[in-house]
């Protein structure tokens, strides 16, 4: 372990990362936001899910520094009387969970399809790529409307909040996997013509073993870059779906549902209900995208400039 840590400290990866102030700042911001979300039960002064601690009389309390602010609510409260700071922390955790879960599902489906399409027969390649083309023609919002109607009819609106998180992971994951499939397929088509693959065939290795043990590790670089960008896209998709009423319910806050709950009060003076979750969402997505851009440039020698 000590040797591995020493090699990491001496690596060109860490050297390049520390010399890029944008990457370092983005990483620091992301770590602060992610840790704040993970430690929400410890950091948050209130539990927005506990109805016993919510008083409707505290609804739309302004931030602490404005007239009428309450020291108990640093960023004010929303229209239900929930502490906005606590709701943002818990909501950010839900948004990150959905983003990471959806990307994991996208990667699993897309990598499998991409490997089979790139290494398999031309007929299998055509079938899988046409399925991917059909999938790309449906946006995540169309899939959410279709599946959301089925889920709410099956479980009922009251029980929907219990399955809202896995539902959004499923919707966003099913809608975006072709991005991975196309990228992995292109890498496999290039890798399977190389000498090490021919050598593996000559010694009698099965195609499944060649795909998963030899070709796949050499296609993970673009997959890693895509994953960073897709996490940000998945978080934005969750926010958009929640804002449209197709995502997280108001009783279970996420960044998107918090923005939606305060949007109708924005021009009536309670601007903080929408503004603060929106700012946090922008910072979270921006930090992930900037890290993804740096990682893409670092892993591509043709783009990276020292």
Short description:
By secondary structure, this protein is an all-alpha fold. It is 71% helix and 0% strand. Helix 5 (84-119) runs parallel beside helix 8 (157-191), helix 5 packs across helix 12 (255-263) and helix 9 packs antiparallel against helix 10 (207-215).
Structure description:
This protein is an all-alpha fold and 306 residues long. It has a single domain, classed as MetI-like (MetI-like fold, Orthogonal Bundle), CATH 1.10.3720. The protein contains 13 helices and no strands. It is globular. The relative contact order is 0.13.
First-to-last CA distance? 30 Å
CATH class group = Mainly Alpha
**How would the global form be characterised?**
globular
**Which strand-content bin applies to the residues?**
under 5%
Average pLDDT score? 82
Secondary structure tally: strands: 0
The multimeric state of the shown protein is single chain
Give the ordered list of helices and strands. HHHHHHHHHHHHH
